[in-house]
Specification:
This protein is mainly beta. The chain has one helix at 58-64; strands at 6-12, 17-21, 24-33, 47-54, 69-84, 87-104. It is globular and about 50 Å long.
């Protein structure tokens, strides 16, 4: 049995595109995985990963996947066969099952917040159920 799961976080290289393939919408984008800085402060060469997100939410994902946005992508590695100008080829891509945009490259990094098994990223935190009892001042400890 093989396990094929990848979780990558990086910066979107250019605005995502949406196209229709066989009646399904697919959002295509690439992310840069930075390999850090050298001792002199210059950036090391980045690794670029092509990604695709298939399904009815592809257009919504593409609206948020803009150049410079920081994104976390979860999915599986697969082969993509292509043909262009009479030449055919094969390339690896990450077929995303989940894409979260967590900010832009210029803004300070903000981690998504998740509440419970379904998650609640991007929404306000749930109301404190104990707030109506007077807060922490009433506690004996």
């Amino acid at each position: 049995m093989a396990i094929n799961v990848a979780v990558l976080e990086g910066v979107v290289g250019k605005d995502a595109t949406v196209r229709s393939v066989g009646g399904d919408e697919v959002c295509g984008f690439s992310i840069s995985l930075s390999n850090g800085k050298n001792k002199d402060g210059s950036w090391r060469e980045s690794t670029w990963v092509d990604c695709s997100y298939w399904g009815k939410y592809a257009a919504e994902k593409a609206d948020r996947l803009r150049k410079g946005a920081r994104a976390t992508v979860t999915g599986r590695i697969g082969l993509r066969r292509w043909e262009k100008d009479g030449k055919s080829g094969v390339s690896l891509e990450l077929r995303a099952s989940d894409v979260s945009v967590t900010g832009t490259s210029e803004a300070p990094r903000r981690e998504p917040t998740s509440y419970g098994p379904q998650g609640n990223a991007g929404r306000d935190a749930p109301e404190d159920p104990h707030a109506r009892f007077g807060g922490d001042e009433d506690l004996p400890f």
